[in-house]
Here is the input.
Amino acid sequence: MKKSRLWLLILVMLSALLYANGVIIPFYEQIQVQPIVIFPKNPVSMLEHLVHIDITEDIAKFTIQEVFYNESDETVEVVYLFPIPDQTFVTDFKMTVGGVVYEGAIMEKDEARALYESYVRQQKDPALLEYIDKNMIRIRIFPFAPYEKREIQVEYHQEVVKTGDYYKLVYPLKIDTLLKGNIGKIKIEGVIHSNRLVYTVNSPTHTIAYTPHPQEAVSFIYAEENLFPSQDFVLFIGYGERQYEAYFVNDEEESGKGTFMLDILPYYPKVGTMQKNVIVVLDKSGSMYGQKYEQAVAAAQFVLARLNQEDRFGLVLFNDMVSEYRKHLLKLLYDQSEAAGASKWLDGSEAGGGTDIYGALHRAMISALANHENENNYVIFLTDGQPTSGITNISKIASDAIAWAKGTGTKMFIFGVGYDVNTGMLDLLAQESGGMAFYVDENENVETKVSQLFSNVSNPLMTDIQVEIVGENAYISDVLPSKNLTIYKDFPLKLFGHYSGNGEIQIKISGKIAAPEGYGSIPYEHVYTVNLSQQNNPYISKLWASRRISELLNQIKLIGETTEAREEIIRLSKKYGIPTPYTSYLILEGIAMQDKDTESTVDAFATLKLDMQARSSAAPAPSLSQTGQGAFEASKMQNMMVQSMTTEALEKAYETDESAKGYRNLYGKLFLFDEKEKFWVDTDYEEEEVIEVQTFSEAYFDLISRLPELKNYLSLGSNIKIQLDGVNYRFKE
Here is the structure.
C-alpha cells in the first residue's frame, strides 16, 4: 500500500477541560487503527505563540497567532486540527500560503474522536488521550517546504466563568512532548474592559505583569522565551469598590472538603503611607571581604535611598564587635542629610574579624527598638557565616532573637550568603517574626536580591491583621500564614487553608491601615460573605501544601522531630509532588541500593518500603542538616516555595533541588527510576499477580477508559510499573 507521509498540527482552544495546544504529530494517511508504526523524529518546531485577549464584561475574545518551522529537508503535507470546545464559537481562521487561503471542515464528535484516537495509537503519546472528546475543524495543507515558516491565525470567543469571588479564564497551554523543542517565544497579553472597576488581575499559575490600580480598563502580559509549558494559563479577575477587597476561591479535592485561597488587596488610590522603622544589620566579618561586602553596602544604600520622609532608620555593622551609625537615630525623622551621612559611613567601613550575630541582633532589636513596640519595625539582616564571637550557641541565639522580635513587633528579613550559614537558625528567625528568608549563592548579586525584597515590602498598607472565618456548616483549619500578617503595596496578602462542609461563610478582616491623609494609622474592620462551591482549582491546593511543608520543616528545626510531622511531610510530598529533605533522602537511599547490585530491584524497593514504614513508626529519620551546600540548597528551595505566588514559580523552586533527580512525585504516588530495566516504578508496586499490558494496545485503551486516573501517570513514558486500586500493572512498549 502506498503511503504518503503527513505531519499533524494540532491547535486546541480554550475550554474548562484540558487540550493540547500547537502539537505536531507525524502519521500515515491510510494506516489502519491496529498497526503501530514507528515514525521519524518530528522536524517541526514552534517559533512563536502569541495570544491577545480582549475581555469585555463576561466575554473574552481570543486572537491567536502561531508560527511553525519545518526544520527538515523534506517537503511534507500537514493536517491542522482545531478541536472546538463547548460554548465556544470561532469567528475567524486564516492560513495563507503563497496567496492561497486554506479552509476547514467541521467534523462531528464521534468522527473526531475516532480519528484522534487513531493518531494517538500511531504516535504513542498518551497525553493526547485527554483530548479526544470534542468536535473539530480539519484542514489539509500541502506543501510544507523544507525550512519554511507557516503562520496560523485563529479568532474565537469564550465566556468568562465566575469562580468563587473571582472571574476565571483558562487558556490551554500544556504542550505535548511531541513538539520539537521548546517554544521560541510565547506571549499572552490582554485588556479587560468593564463598567465596574477592575480591582485586581492575577494568575495563580504564571507570573504576569499589570498595573495594580483599580480602573475600568486594565492590561496584563505574560512573556517568556524558550519555554516548554507544563500547565494551562489561568487568569483571575476581581471587581470591587471597597477600600480593601477580599477574594475567596476554593479547590474541592473531595466531596465537601478541600483547600481555599483568600486574597486581600487594597484599593491603592485611597490609602496613605504608614510610618516604619528600618534597621539594616550587615555582617562585615573577614569572610565578607571583597565584592561580597561591596554589594552588601550598596544594598544598604539602596534601602536608605527609598525610605519615605516619615520613616526612621538605623544601621548596624558587626564582626567580632558591633557598631552602629548614630546610637539613637531612630528618634529622628529621616531626611536627605542623614541619608548622605549614613551612606558615607557605610563607604568608610571595611570587612574583617569574627562574627558576633547575637550581639548584632540584640543591638538592633533591644537597644534600638525597645521603645517602639507598637510601630512598624523591620530588620534586614545579612550574614555569610556562623557565629564565632560572643554567644555562639545556635539555639540560644535563635530563641532569644525570636523573643526580641516578638517583644518589639519586629519582622526580620534574612539574607544568607553562601554555604557557611546556619539555615535552620535563619529560617526560624524569618518564619517566627513574620518576615522572609532568602539565600544568595556565592555567584549571585547580593545587592539585587536585597533591592528586590525592599521594593516589595517598603510600603506597608495594612498591619496587625486578624482574619476570622466562620460558618454554620463549614469548618476552617490549617490557615497559612497565620501570624504577623501584613499587606504591602504591590505585594498582596494571600492566605491558604483547609475547609470541610458547605454553604455560606463569613470572613472578618481587621487591622490597622494608613490614614488617608497625613501619617499614622487608623483601625479597619470589614465582614465579607462568601460561599463554598464545587470548583476544581488544583493550583490552590499545591500552593497551600508548599507552605504547610515549610512550616512543618521549621517546626522540626525549632522543637525537634515528631512522628506526626514527619509522616505529614512525606504524605504531602507524595500527594502534591513537592520535593522535601525527607522524600529526597528516601529516594536517594533507594537509588543507591539499586546501584550496589547486591539486591534485585524488587528487593531494593521492598527494603525501601520497609525503611519508610520503620521511619513512620519508631526509628528516627536522619537529622536535617542545617549547614553546608545541601542545607543551603534545601532552605533556598523551601523559602522559594513559601514565597511562590504561582505554580510556575513553585516549579522553578523545584529546579534548585539536585537530589530530586531519579524520582518523580505525581498525584500522590512516588516513582523511582530503575536504570537497569529502564522502568519508572511506583513505590506501592509489588511483583505479585502482575497484569502486563502492552502500551497502546486495545487492552491499554480499555484500561484507561475504566481507570481514567491512569492518565495522570502516563507522562512518565511507556515503561511503567504501578499499583492502582490494589492491582499491580506493568506497562511495556
